[in-house]
TrEMBL record:
This is Mut7-C RNAse domain-containing protein. Residues 90-231 form the Mut7-C RNAse domain. It comes from Streptomyces aureoversilis. Pfam families: Mut7-C (PF01927), Ub-Mut7C (PF14451). PANTHER family: MUT7-C DOMAIN-CONTAINING PROTEIN, MUT7-C RNASE DOMAIN-CONTAINING PROTEIN. Coiled coil: none annotated. Residues 4-82 form the Ubiquitin Mut7-C domain. It comes from the Bacteria. InterPro entries: Mut7-C_RNAse_dom, Ub_Mut7C.
Length: 244
């Protein structure tokens, strides 16, 4: 005896998650009598973090809805900019997104990051404990129920990753205010107070410094500053923020 079916349409933005048969409009999907719509969507490969409005027979429905045979389901993409209610907008990035984490910090965005792989359960628990949006390219990690909020990073290229996150969440940008190494806050530092941490050439060449209030790392406008200014300038022009 064949199982009952619903007909599912997946938004174009989400079709990378599903097989070729589900990339056509109103693809048939077998269901049982107990699984929620959210469970069905995840079983197709779409993380719920990426699903926006769910429409059943053209009417909004929650992920807890238990679909019935013959229903037509439309899975929409998350609307951008996405609102994340209930906490200041902060991020947690998995071990594979170190460059993205440093670029977010360069822009003054609160971006926690573990340089060592602490494992999916620990990452999910940290997301919940600190109420951070977990960013990852690992679909399995984003399916963990304990995460507070999450988002799939669609590209493997840092420039595109940064634009993706900024366009999706529109965080407030405050360039040059965070330590790119540890995410701590930066403060102006007098040259004589950090002189012992500087090499002779740096002491002789530069006079303006900042220091992390957490890890005490010292920053100045060195050889890489022009490249970093370009990253900051592009982000500020496209997504807003104080003048560079």
């Amino acid at each position: 005896m064949s199982r009952p079916e619903i007909h599912v349409t997946v938004a174009p933005e989400l079709q990378l998650f599903v097989n070729s048969e589900l990339r056509r409009k109103r693809a048939p999907v077998a269901i049982d009598a107990s699984s929620s719509l959210g469970h069905v969507i995840e079983s197709l490969g779409v993380p719920l973090t990426e699903a926006g409005r769910l429409l059943v027979d053209r009417r909004p429905a929650p992920a807890a809805h238990v679909p019935a045979a013959g229903e037509s389901v439309e899975v929409c993409a998350v609307e951008r900019p996405q609102q994340v209610p209930g906490a200041p907008l902060r991020f947690l990035l998995d071990v594979h997104l170190g460059t993205l984490a440093r670029r977010l910090r360069l822009l003054g965005v609160d971006a926690a990051y573990e340089s060592e792989d602490i494992g999916d359960p620990a990452l999910a628990a940290l997301s919940a404990a600190e109420r951070r949006v977990l960013l990852s390219r690992d679909r399995g990690l984003l399916r963990r129920r304990e995460i507070w909020a999450g988002a799939y990073v669609y590209s493997d290229r840092p420039d595109e990753q940064l634009r993706d996150v900024l366009s999706r969440f529109m965080p407030v940008l405050a360039p040059w205010t965070r330590c790119t190494a540890c995410n701590g806050r930066l403060a102006e530092a007098a040259k004589d107070t950090v002189a012992e941490r500087l090499e002779h050439g740096t002491r002789r060449t530069y006079d303006v410094f900042a220091q992390c209030t957490a890890c005490e790392r010292v920053y100045w406008r060195g050889a890489h500053h022009e490249r970093l200014e370009a990253i900051v300038g592009d982000a500020v022009r496209e997504f807003g923020g104080p003048a560079v």
